[in-house]
Amino acid sequence: MKLSSVSLFSAAVGLASASPVHKRAGVTDADILNYALTLEHLEAAFYEEGLKNYTHDDFTKAGMKDPFYSNLKMVAMDEQTHVQFLTQALTAAGAQPVAKCNYSFPATDVKSFLALGSVLEGVGVSAYLGAAASIMNDTYLTAAGSILTVEARHSAYLRAALGEAPSPQAFDDPLGLNEVYTVASPFIASCPSSNQKLPVKAFPSLTMSSMTGSKVDLMAGPGFNMDNTTGLYAAFITVTGPIWAQLTPKGDGKFSATIPEGVSGQSYVVLTKGNSQATDDNIVAGPAIVEVATSTSSMGGGMNSTTSMTSSSPSMSMSGSATPTPTYNAAPGMAPRSLVGVLAGFVGAMGLFL
Ligand SMILES: *[C@@H]1O[C@H](CO)[C@@H](O)[C@H](O)[C@H]1NC(C)=O
Ligand SMILES: *[C@@H]1O[C@H](CO)[C@@H](O)[C@H](O)[C@H]1NC(C)=O
Ligand SMILES: *[C@@H]1O[C@H](CO)[C@@H](O)[C@H](O)[C@H]1NC(C)=O
Ligand SMILES: *[C@@H]1O[C@H](CO)[C@@H](O)[C@H](O)[C@H]1NC(C)=O
Ligand SMILES: *[C@@H]1O[C@H](CO)[C@@H](O)[C@H](O)[C@H]1NC(C)=O
After folding, report:
1. Does ligand 3 lie within 6 Å of residue 190's CB atom?
2. How far apart are CA 172 and CA 155, in angstroms?
3. Ligand 1 lined by 143 (C-beta under 6 Å)
4. Distance CA 156, CA 342 (A)
5. Each residue's pLDDT tens digit, 123-145
6. Are 82 and 19 in contact (CB under 8 A)?
7. Residues of the chain with CATH 2.60.40
């Protein structure tokens, strides 16, 4: 255990000394911390499995030059430290911390592992960002913020390693608790029955099945009412509110949507009833995750592979020749069964970079 972790633990204990956790709109700070802990357990398990499954040599063979492997181990260590920090903070505050679950990750090799890792880090950033406004206690807010910035660095590092722009847009997209849970729950196979039930629910899943130019094909999963698609809209979530996309129903829960201008990087699209808002009250499916790479992403991809920041990736040259035309990659939308297929599509697109 690193020294820095030890002092963090004392910080967690000090931070949580006694006082009962506060509550806003039915969600307590303990709920938020346990929600964060749920995600940190998932991320920690993901890297632990991946580093068990794939050797240093496997990473090298997949084109990840040193010091990528040791940096990845540091990322894994960060996630474990976040788990321990939140567990301690909750315990010290007199709340019951959730324990680790069993997980199911559709990763089969280094490339799919890193592609999924990049998506998970992006979801982590969006989760902390979306939860920030619900945290009552300043001390917890600062602690959550200090985790958020590290998740953002992980995200940027993995994106760069995959030949994607590290920071493809000026603002990250906040996701609500239910949106994050919708995206994360397919990876959670089973949890200890002693785990506190969090005040979250999953919306019907939304998966991206294919894309052509700026058109994405979406498919809603179980629980979605396919019989009446009248008045449904597609919303891309941004910090300044939804950007509405043209949505064409194709029957059987299938839709086609056009990615609007101004959307880039790891983006999230939900189906909503009506187009005045995109909230828990009117989201009917999603989010689906869409990686939108615009020409600006050549900022990452355009660098020579000798550039130190991206030296881990031999693949940077590909987007160096990026045309101004946006390209679109699919990421896991969320139906567990279709997940592998969709991820394969995602990784397939990534294969160009790797
Ligand atoms: C925030 O939580 C800390 C640790 O539990 C506590 O010491 C502090 O009084 C709380 N602040 C507020 C404003 O409730
Ligand atoms: C690790 O390998 C196991 C066994 O093949 C597999 O079930 C799991 O999904 C893999 N996990 C990762 C993160 O690669
Ligand atoms: C995880 O899976 C193992 C093997 O199937 C099982 O014994 C264990 O109870 C599961 N743990 C949880 C937390 O669901
Ligand atoms: C279909 O949904 C729209 C919008 O929610 C609603 O106005 C309409 O009454 C519904 N039609 C049927 C047949 O349920
Ligand atoms: C990349 O490297 C090549 C050859 O080493 C060089 O000619 C080119 O100018 C470099 N490009 C950039 C963007 O540094």
Report:
1. yes
2. 11
3. no
4. 22
5. 999 999 999 999 999 999 999 99
6. no
7. 206-292
Atom of ligand 3 lying closest to residue 189 CA: 14
> What residues does 272 pair with on adjacent strands?
233, 283
pLDDT digits (tens, 9 = 90+) for 283-292: 999 999 999 9
Q: Quick check: CB of 191 below 6 Å from ligand 3?
A: yes
CATH class name, domain 206-292: mainly beta
Ligand index nearest the alpha carbon of residue 102: 3
Residue whose structure tokens are 């979801």: 123
According to CATH, the topology of domain 5-190 is Ferritin (1.20.1260)
pTM (2 d.p.): 0.80
* Ligand nearest, relative to CA of residue 104: 2
- CA quadruple 144, 163, 239, 135: dihedral, nearest 10: -10
CA dihedral angle for residue 126, residue 129, residue 130, residue 131, rounded to 10 degrees = 120
- Residue intervals of the chain classified under CATH 1.20.1260.10 are 5-190
Classify the C-alpha dihedral 5-127-113-328 as positive or negative: negative
DSSP for 6-24?
HHHHHHHHHHT-S-PPPEE
Q: Which residue has the tokens 């239910």?
A: 178
